[in-house]
Amino acid sequence: MPPKTPSVVLVGRPNVGKSTLFNRITGSRRAIVAPIAGTTRDWLARPAVWRGSSFQLFDTGGLFGASEDPLHELVVRQGQRAIVGADLLVMVVDGRVGLASGDETIARELRETGLPVLLAINKTDDKRARDSLLEFYQLGFEPVIEISAEHGTGVAELLDEVVKQIGGSRLQDGASGPASEELDPQASASDRQPSAPDETAVAIVGRPNVGKSSLVNRLLHEERVLVSEMPGTTRDAIDTVLLWHRRRFRIVDTAGMRRPGRVSSGGKVEMVSVAGAKKAIFDADVVALVIDASAGATDQDAAIGGEADRAGRGIVIIANKWDLVKSQDVNFSKTFDDNLRHGMRFLDYAPILHISALTGERAPKVIETIDKIAETRRKRIPTPVLNKFIEAITSANPPVSPGRKHVRIMYAAQIGVAPPSFVFFTNVATTFHFSYQRFLVNQLRESFGFIGTPIRLQVRRRAEKKRPRKGR
Fold it and tell me: Which of 51, 102, 211, 355 could form a disulfide with 65 if both were Cys (CB 3.0 to 4.6 A apart)?
């Protein structure tokens, strides 16, 4: 077994700058940063590297201290769960505010864990912090490091101490990918964490309160993300690795996506949350669109599905809360699916699953279906097989163009995967009639099993062979 990657957990009161420090160290913008106490709710995890040593960094919600978040008790419980598995704790305090009673309470709890603790005094670039720095030595932790997470000063010294405390997991020579990069704490944050080549990235998306987080917890068999009846519980895009039949899936739980007009009225935090959800769609291999079966599909569900379709991602539609509607008449399932297809005709290729994240009914089908979709997105059709197929279907159903021109497909080739993309070379410069293009897509899907993925087509005129010039 490979050695366990050391885990470092950032803890502290709300709004002391843990998320800013998390983004700075991990070189990402994964944690939402806002001047609102209690912005972070679920703990976030991200790999980090310093001077050749790697570790896993965790950002937690604010422990104790002032917070108007109605879910604060759940947030504290989540943070405590992250602390249990830590190798090192970094307690972050606010130098501008000075020593607060909440800091003393947290320090007492951290000492009881028996784990090593580093104390990072944040915001020391502010002149107001100079008079209060000595107060923090009363907490009894050593060493004490002065930092500015926003500007990066002191972060290198903090990371030196982190690596010294945990030893770190030394990277092997020739290691590649994001984990092998040397962090620059002075650099501006940028997301350097694409999914691994052997990993399927899955974005769980949908409107608020449709059960996305409940589904994630059900798939992971643990209470990884907060679940509440209050819409908008999830703010950050929370990603966790799931191993299933020796395959890796990075499951990303996202914030609920409301209509743009409503989002703008929800403030900066919601706007950033929705932006994170859209980025998760863009970064995903497969998007799981969760809808509330008891409410039926809405225009906003269709709009979210449209985002995934335009991005060329694989899609599975998950009708959650099926336990609330399955007792109805025997034809309800077919009627439900027909109505859903009518409202989302552009997603006619996406499988529909009826599940209950609460009871677990048919939940195992979710990962099984996602795996099939991810596989078909990467499928390649050999050129001879493709052209034999095209010859067969075009002889029975010749191409139709908008201008009623006589069109012949001379040659076809697959030019890409994820999504599967094809180019058709014809005898004239034209496009196919939209109905004929849909016919080709459906035939490709049915014949080669492209389940749950959009298919892209291009039409080009085949270049004419140049005749040699006759000599004078």
Answer: 102
Residue for token pair 């997301």? 191
Dihedrals phi, psi of 461, to nearest 5 degrees? -80, 130
**Beta bridge mates, 205:** 289
pLDDT by residue (tens digit) across 266-304? Answer: 455 556 667 777 888 998 999 999 999 999 899 999 999
If asked whether residues 157 and 74 sit together in one domain, one would say yes
With tokens 């089908």, the residue in question is 365
User: Beta partners for 49?
Assistant: 54
| Omega before 364 within 30 of 0, i.e. cis | no
CATH code, domain carrying 329: 3.40.50.300
**Residue span of the structural domain in which 124 resides:** 7-180
Same domain (yes/no): 45, 151: yes
Has residue 468 been placed in a domain? no
pLDDT in tens, 129-169: 777 788 999 999 988 999 999 899 999 999 999 999 988 54
Give 384-390 contacts, CB < 8 A, sequence gap 24+: 386/412, 386/413, 386/414, 386/422, 387/411, 387/412, 389/443, 389/444, 389/447, 390/424
Query: Residue 16 and residue 64: Cα distance in Å, rounded?
Result: 12
* Cross-strand partners of 414: 422
Which domain-ending residue is among 331, 359, 377?
377
Identity of residue 175? A
Q: Are residues 392 and 350 in the same domain?
A: no
Kindly tell me the burial class for residue 140, based on how many C-beta atoms sit within 10 Å of its own C-beta (0-12, 13-18, 19 or more).
exposed
Residues 239 and 368 grouped into a single domain:
yes
387 and 365 in a common domain: no
347 and 452 housed in the same domain? no
Residue 304 CA to residue 207 CA, distance in Å, equals: 8
What six digits make up the tokens of 329?
């008449």
* DSSP per-residue string spanning 212-250: HHHHHHHHHTS--S---SSTT---S-EEEEEEETTEEEE
What does the pLDDT look like over 72-102, one tens digit per residue?
455 566 666 768 778 999 999 999 889 988 8
Count of domains in the chain? 3
**Cis omega (within 30 of 0) for bond into 419:** yes
**Residue 171, pLDDT above cutoff 70:** no
% helix, strand, coil for the chain, step of 5: 35, 20, 45
CA dihedral 306, 196, 190, 35 (to 10 degrees): 70
